[in-house]
Amino acid sequence: MKRALNIGTTVGGKAFALPLDFVARTLGIIAVRGAGKTVAATVLAEEMCEAGLPWIAFDPTPGGVWWGLRVNPDGSAGGYPVLVIGGRHGDLPFHKDKAGQLAEAVVRENVCCVVDVSRESKTTWRAFVADFCDRLMELEPSTPRHVFLEEAPEFVPQKPLGEQKRSLAAVDRLVRLGRNAGYGATLISQRTATIQKDVLTQCETLLAMRSVGEPDRRAMKGWIAECVSPKPDDPEVERFLGSLPELPDGEGWLWSPQWLKAFERVRIRARKTFHPGQTRTVNAEGRSDLAQVELSDVRDFVDRFRSVLAAEAPARARSPARKGNKIVVGVPVDAVVERGTDRATVDEFVGRAEAAEAEANRLRGQVADLHRQLGAAKATLQKLRATLEPQYRAMQGLFAELDGAAAIGFLVPAPVLALGLITAWNHPATELLYGSIAIVVLGLVGRYAAIGIRALAASIAQSSPHLEESAAAFGAGPARRLWSIVLPANAHGVAAAALLAALFALRDLETVMLVHPAGVEPLPVRIVTLEANGPAPVVAGLALIHVAATGAVAALGLAFLRGRRTWPTS
């Protein structure tokens, strides 16, 4: 018994294998046409056949290629005991209305099976895969199994339309929740940009082979951001994306950040079976090489599977069984009528059962849509966090420095602050500022800025950050968010902080007396000067004016706060 799935080597020549529990894991294989994505998938299928792990592959590629697992590389009979349904080389015909029965049969018999839908319409592909996945998720298999989905964007497109929405919902459910039931899945696609990102990001492992389109590499960045959460300018990310256009056939990057915690450049080994995609040529006699291949004999296996597939499906609790176009829970309509039940009653019951099933399908689609919306919201929030966090850290550091400087200005003695202002501004180049009342304003700001900053910070801390985050999501920079969002939203806090700082400034004497310029006497300085030599009535009048100005600011602040309490909160 194999202990691992040996899929190739690293570029350094070391053997590379996946654990057997890959059967219940999820993988995305992305590569341009001819780069080896189907070879990589079929190599995994070969390894699982040898390990006794069942799988099923849906093959919509023109002419089909997965049937080659039943043929030796030289075209002779051999390969693996794989059942082929549909297509040119099918052991059993394809029936588009038997998806549920097929799911039950493959689970019951634990077979490896290829469903070749290459001759069917795309509408049939999607409806069959949706029915199959829905029924598969209702079953409880005794053995884990894997589902391979070629041309995945046909079933999980980035922009689903019409019947694509149902197949998207079914495959999305399988990828997200299948592991709990023992199911794994591999999505195979030529392009990253056309596959549904909410489904692709649920793949635990990515095998990225040659990819030349810039939109596809950008989409891979989205997978990396969602599943890896790299640091900005991560050299591994740059090495990964930069090498994609130049990768040779059969070589790719296998990145499994959570499950295997591996990031390796690997070379996929050659197939042990026939690969139709590499040999579709015409020889000198004008005959196709495909006409010369011989599939291995699995008639006993097919007969046994046919009997299982043809058997009537067992009744399911709370799930209607189909007979023709009629649906009755667990019992065929004709059997009910033969027992004497009125046909009108049966038809009414059938109609209700069909309506219930339609409603269940609608609800499943809505649940899948909600899952996708939640995934999109999560991705948006992560991008927003990645955008805001560096800016927040930078602004946090800046505000901490400003707050520290303001606190120093408030705590140091007034003579020390005044001496610093005089030393800094008493120069010929700054004479215009030093010789005017502006030096007094500057001194008061330096003295009491800490009070205003702390009061404003408390107000901003109580406000909701959602408006600023939304503005950042639409590209608004820090300065624009400050002037357009933060300050208007906290206008009352700004006013309260200004009034509080003004009260402290009005009662200040030391700073004003030490830094006021010659020929200018602020009111506190004038009062002190006249107190010694001036008339008492003049000093009293000026003092009353000072008290009145301070009281007016305080009264304005109280009225503002009282009015603020009565404002609606919504």
Explain what you see.
This protein has 570 residues and is α/β, with parallel strands linked by helices. The chain has three domains: 4-310, 3-Layer(aba) Sandwich (Rossmann fold); 315-407; 412-565, MetI-like (MetI-like fold, Orthogonal Bundle), CATH 1.10.3720.10. It has 19 helices and 13 strands. The chain has helices spanning 37-51, 99-109, 122-138, 164-181, 197-200, 214-227, 235-243, 299-310, 333-338, 343-411, 414-425, 431-434, 438-461, 466-473, 478-489, 491-506, 510-515, 523-533, 536-565; strands at residues 4-10, 15-19, 26-30, 55-59, 83-85, 113-116, 145-149, 183-189, 205-208, 251-256, 262-268, 321-323, 326-328. The longest helix is centred in the middle third of the chain and has 69 residues, at 343-411. The protein is elongated and about 125 Å long. The model is unreliable at 279-291, 312-333 and 565-570 (pLDDT under 50).
Count of the domains: 3
Strand content: 5-15%
Major sheet characteristics: 11 strands, mixed
Under CATH, the topology of the largest domain is which? Rossmann fold
Can you count the beta strands?
Answer: 13
Radius of gyration from the CA trace? 38 Å
Outline the low-pLDDT stretches: 279-291, 312-333, 565-570
Annotation field: number of helices: 19
Structural class: alpha/beta
Mean pLDDT across residues: 80
CATH class descriptor of the largest domain? Alpha Beta
